[in-house]
Write a structure and sequence with these properties.
single chain, alpha+beta, four-stranded antiparallel β-sheet, three-stranded antiparallel β-sheet
């Protein structure tokens, strides 16, 4: 009997692995749906999570979600994803309602180093100009202002240039609106709806997560990454020349296939990476 159970378990494992491999092959068949060459700013090397006995190497998508750029995720786009906007408005005082409101799957357009990134740069440069224009007499306040300016400059130097710019229930219509496959990737994601209690009092959405947010680096492509120390994240307290002149240590060519799932095609060290 035990042998029968063991055989059934082995057969199930083989079947599951076979289905997974068929899915991978199907996704990668034909021309890539999109191809982006990203850097360490957008793909974080998970060196700190690797164990010595584990040969797996992964990269994690880091997309810039900390700006005001998701204001476009409005009630109409949430309706397109299947949210009941009227029900959300009627239950705007019921916190339990929002806790029970499940996210919905949609497709998100990620733009690399495009208009959204340029708008972000302008926003941050404006902040810097406003801060530099202030001349506080108090020494501590002056130090805090200088710290804020340094933090924003470091943000522009190291923050991801990958931005979510649109969302929809299906990828086809999105691709028609964003035809440049070297700048726009379409990915599956989870989206939540919530209610704003500001003066505008409106329903808005938030991208919770990309459904594929980590990439396995094939063994044949791991060599440039193995041995790299964990990335040193900059802070407003780090005024060293190395921090001010930080550069990404590698570039990664990522393809998305017919199922809009990504895989890594190439990993190349930059001059900054070769020094380490």
């Amino acid at each position: 009997m035990k042998n029968s159970y063991l055989l059934i378990a082995l057969v199930l494992i083989v079947l599951v692995n076979g289905i997974i491999l068929l899915g991978v092959a199907g996704n990668r068949s034909g021309a890539a749906e999109a191809t982006l060459t990203l850097t360490e700013r957008e793909l974080d090397y998970l060196a700190t999570y690797q164990k010595e006995e584990n040969s797996g190497v992964s990269l994690r998508f880091d997309w810039n979600e900390y700006s005001s750029g998701q204001s476009w995720l409005d009630a109409q786009k949430l309706t397109d994803l299947g949210f009941d906007i009227e029900a959300i408005k009627q239950n705007n005082q019921d916190r339990n309602y929002y806790r029970q409101l499940l996210p919905k799957r949609g497709y998100v357009v990620l733009e690399y180093a495009g208009e959204a990134w340029r708008n972000y740069q302008v926003e941050k440069e404006t902040e810097i100009a406003e801060l530099v224009g202030k001349t506080p007499a108090d020494e501590k306040k002056a130090e805090r202002l200088a710290s804020q300016v340094a933090r924003i400059r470091e943000d522009l130097l190291s923050r991801s240039r990958l931005f979510a710019v649109d969302v929809g229930p299906g990828p086809e219509a999105l691709r028609q609106r964003y035809p440049d496959r070297s700048r726009f990737a379409i990915v599956a994601a989870e989206v939540r709806a919530s209610y704003s209690y500001t003066d505008e009092r409106k329903v808005h959405g938030r991208i919770v997560q990309l459904l594929v947010d980590r990439l396995h680096v094939p063994l044949s492509l791991q060599k440039p990454l193995v041995g790299l120390p964990p990335r040193k994240y900059l802070s407003s307290y780090d005024a060293s020349p190395e921090a001010r002149n930080w550069q990404p240590r590698y570039t990664v060519t990522v393809n998305w296939g017919s199922r809009f799932e990504p895989w890594i095609e190439a990993v190349v060290l930059t001059p900054a990476g070769e020094k380490e």
